[in-house]
Amino acid sequence: MILYDREHEDREAIGTALAEARGLSLIKPYDAPDVIAGQGTCGFEIAVQAAEVGIDQADVLVCCGGGGLTSGVALALEHEAPKMRVRPVEPVDFDDVTRSLQSGRRESNDRSGGSICDAIVTRSPGEMTFPLMRDLCGPGIVVPEDDCLRAISVAFSRFKLVLEPGGAIALAAALYHGDQLSGDHVICIASGGNIDAQLFTRALQTYPCP
Amino acid sequence: MILYDREHEDREAIGTALAEARGLSLIKPYDAPDVIAGQGTCGFEIAVQAAEVGIDQADVLVCCGGGGLTSGVALALEHEAPKMRVRPVEPVDFDDVTRSLQSGRRESNDRSGGSICDAIVTRSPGEMTFPLMRDLCGPGIVVPEDDCLRAISVAFSRFKLVLEPGGAIALAAALYHGDQLSGDHVICIASGGNIDAQLFTRALQTYPCP
């Protein structure tokens, strides 16, 4: 395992250099066709499960970093449930995808770290994922970090699920940013639970859910 | 909603009196055929999912209070996976089912409350559930409460699940009482997450899971 300083080092560059020096294959965490296709199976599951309860139209909120999960889900839904609309959800100050979708080109964030939503913080959308999101997604939704902590507490209390901030951000958008949604149905992906006990406890204590 | 004092009042008597006074149907939480059958669907799921990975023989650990879930699962497995053996799991001091299986008749606990495993604390096995468990289950496993807190921390860290003490007791048996198990496969049911933030936090802080 090779650790790095995400504030001052570039993991892409480290990965590329390692792959070249050791003759390894680099599998990028989102900008790779097989990764996008694999994450897209989540969209397939959404289409199947929604159809079982008679839903073919919905805003589908996806926790969004580099856009692998988002573009994969959007691709799957384009085929399986084309009336659904994918909405990328990002934290405040790390809204590169939302701004890229607005401007039509890949925008970057000023910072590469310093968010509790660290799992979904990337500098900019992927070269491969951005065109897919541009063609297939609705507008992004930008959520303050504290709303993620509130959603973690709701997921604990109501769904009995452990979520990390970045994995709870789509739920946070559904719960606290409904003014940006339309239609009767909202589907959100809860995409990760890598949270330490200290931060989890802080979420439960700061935002107790009755 | 009618609240009662579980240490000094008898909920069975309260329920029966209410049903008579108001002409209502009393649906008991475990000693009722439809409830047992409904909970047995969990055993059916176990058989199907285990078969998918080629497993037809296992100790199946079930969080056990009055025995509705336990006897339902045992009934389902008798038909769907008859080589599996159901093992009821109970907290120390509330091991009425384990002792009843040993003696062959319905034994009682001295206390009816005072456990953090409150969801699975009952005075004695049900009239309907006991004969089923007697005919179909292996020996009970009795687990200290602290092991349930440890299992809650493991479930948080490894499975990203929120469990209450009584719902984590089968996992606790698997993790810390393996000396009472035999065979290569152990299946446990995680049966509830009704835990408040305070007790959950205590579990994570007391038994941190690296």
Summary tags:
alpha/beta; 210 residues; Rossmann fold; 4-stranded parallel beta sheet
User: Counting H and I runs of at least 4 residues, what is the number of helices of chain A?
Assistant: 8
Terminal-residue CA separation of chain A: 42 Å
The level 1 CATH classification of chain A is Alpha Beta
The class by helix and strand makeup of chain A works out as alpha/beta
Please provide a written account of the structure.
2 copies of one chain form a homodimer. With 210 residues, chain A is of the alpha/beta class. Chain A has one domain (29-206): Rossmann fold, CATH 3.40.50. Chain A has helices at residues 11-22, 33-52, 68-80, 96-103, 129-136, 145-159, 169-176, 197-206, and strands at residues 59-63, 85-91, 141-143, 186-188. In chain A, helix 3 links the parallel strand 1 (59-63) and strand 2 (85-91).
Write the topology of this structure.
Two copies of one chain form a homodimer.
Chain A: H1 11-22, H2 33-52, E1 59-63, H3 68-80, E2 85-91, H4 96-103, H5 129-136, E3 141-143, H6 145-159, H7 169-176, E4 186-188, H8 197-206
Parallel strand pairs in A: 1-2, 1-4, 2-3
